[in-house]
């Protein structure tokens, strides 16, 4: 899965993702995208709470959860930011967590917009919505 | 092949369940370590796909329990994780009939690993290529 969701606005890349990762099923891709959209705010809120408390173990676990959702649509900027937070926390390093969280929040916002474009592109690929 | 998929990530479970069913497998799902032990014991799956980060006991703790239980110790386990910790593959590899597969994973990648385990161990039914 070498896709980057930021580049998936390109219809060809979206078609490749749909074919390789979702077996050509737009319905499956939309189901997964809907769940990720529903759960991402809660995961980000849990991460923000952990950062506010300076709790390294909680940051590591919450960043890992965020990264898990992001990875379902390829690695990219947001996934990289989440991984930085997770790895720093794993080492007990939390002093830069607030800055990293802000960067991640921006990247996730962009990622969610890109995800919307992915599903739009898929509808162009498969208007029947199979 | 009956596969017990143990992961608490609803989106990943939706994706992998669809992919594994498409590959011809029967899939049962557990959302935490306790449920994994219960379903593994009662349902006797052919193989278990086990996430490392789960509530109710981590995947590695659950793997220890699976191997210590006479009813589950011979069930092949594929441990999956997005954790980059190099210690995890080593800890998984220390157990018999256990392999590590880094996330992101697909149903096809899981089937490929299980096929390799089936050929290597002779325990599992060999899934179609």
How is this structure best described in words?
The complex is a heterodimer of chains A (130) and B (129). Chain A is built from five helices and no strands. Chain A has helices at residues 11-22, 26-53, 56-71, 77-90, 97-125. In chain A, 42% of the residues are buried. The model of chain B has no long low-confidence stretch (mean pLDDT 90). At the A-B interface, α2, α3 and α4 of A face α1 of B.
Specify the number of helices of chain A: 5
Shape of chain B: globular
Biggest beta sheet attributes of chain B:
5 strands, parallel
| End-to-end CA span of chain A | 22 Å
Number of strands of chain A: 0
Rg of chain A computed from alpha carbons, rounded to a whole number of angstroms:
15 Å
- Structural category of chain A: mainly alpha
Q: What's the mean pLDDT score of chain B?
A: 90
User: What share of the residues of chain B lie within helices?
Assistant: 40-55%
Chains forming the largest contact: A-B, 22 and 17 residues
Distance between the termini of chain B: 13 Å
Provide tags for this entry.
heterodimer; A: 130 residues; mainly alpha; 5 helices; B: 129 residues; alpha/beta; 5-stranded parallel sheet
Topology:
The complex is a heterodimer of chains A (130) and B (129).
Chain A lengths: L10 H12 L3 H28 L2 H16 L5 H14 L6 H29 L5
Chain B lengths: L1 E5 L3 H13 L3 E5 L2 H11 L3 E5 L7 H10 L8 E5 L5 H7 L4 E5 L4 H15 L8
Parallel strand pairs in B: 1-2, 1-3, 3-4, 4-5
Helix pairs in contact in B: 1-5, 2-3
Outline:
The complex is a heterodimer of chains A (130) and B (129). Helices cover 76% and strands 0% of the residues of chain A.
